[in-house]
Amino acid sequence: MSQPKVTVLHGPNLNLLGVRQPDVYGYETLEDVNNALRKTAIMTGWEINCFQSNHEGELIDAIHAARLDGTLAIIINPAAYTHTSVAILDALNAFEGKVIEVHISNVHKRESFRHHSYVSLRADGVIAGLGTQGYQAALDTILASTE
Questions:
Q1: Against a cut of 0.90, is the pTM above it?
Q2: What is the pLDDT of residues 9-31, one digit of tens each?
Q3: Other beta carbons less than 10 A from residue 124's beta carbon
Q4: Which residues are catalytic?
């Protein structure tokens, strides 16, 4: 039997995590985040695929791939696409597994345009303001829901 699989998607500018606005996003790098998630996945017998793109279409392609490759859940931080991308929402609506939306900062304490999320219309859960630990909380939630 194959391992259960989760896909983690990071949107635009998250490749700069740790150096871009550390007062908002902290000093942990995207590699640090992904390595911590991989460690948890390995310890629990899960396969994990982490992907970052600054391009909306590549994120949509990754969602489509997850739909077809047996992925049970998607953790997504759509970053700025949260507030603009109906296309990412449409792709997530075609995915039948669990979707957890993650934001490193508390978007509700920031500019008003960040208060609306298209992705939230599909997400089974939303985690915001826990820093990079939000990704771990999302993974823990997925693992607990499939035990």
A1: yes
A2: 999 999 999 887 777 667 889 99
A3: 14
A4: 25, 103
